[in-house]
Amino acid sequence: MSRETAELTCIVCPVGCRLRATVEDGQLVEAQGNSCKRGAVYALDELCAPKRTVTSTVRVEGGFLPLVPVRTREPIPKDKIAQVLLDIAKIRIDAPIRIHQIVAADVAGTGIDVIASRSMSRVSAPRAE
User: Which of 49, 51, 39, 2 is closest to 23 using CA atoms?
Assistant: First the structure.
């Protein structure tokens, strides 16, 4: 039987409740300090299967900027973050780019896509005179 008690700051809403949560064998046994039910769900997720949204940038060819911001479409398991960042670092994409365009599908075998966080138009090559 595995029992863990932790103090957390809930990040589900702007209130930022200080939680004290106890998890036993993957089940929430007790949660204190949360002002809403979402805090208890957050505590369980954070202690049993923590996830984060990963943000980064990708190199762009032919865009008006050299980089485009990207993010994972959904939070990914924390233990996959390093591999996701390594995979993102290898990506090169050609402009134009649409916001929410898939930049990498199923990144690091998570089943989650990396998407563009903004649009970027293509810059035409300078004219030879």
Answer: 2
Query: In the chain, what percentage of residues exceed pLDDT 90?
Result: 64
Q: Which residue ranges form the domains of the chain, and what is each CATH number?
A: 3-49 (2.20.25), 55-116 (3.10.530.10)
Question: CA 51, CA 53: separation in Å to the nearest integer?
Answer: 7
Would you state the pLDDT for residue 41?
A: 86
Helix and strand counts by DSSP (H, E) for the chain: 2, 10
CA proximity to 76, closest of 44, 47, 49, 104: 49
- The lowest-confidence range among 42-51, 65-74, 101-110, 120-129 is 120-129
Peptide bond into 96 cis (omega under 30): yes
Query: Which residues contact residue 46 at a Cβ distance below 8 angstroms, ignoring those fewer than 6 apart?
Result: 6, 8
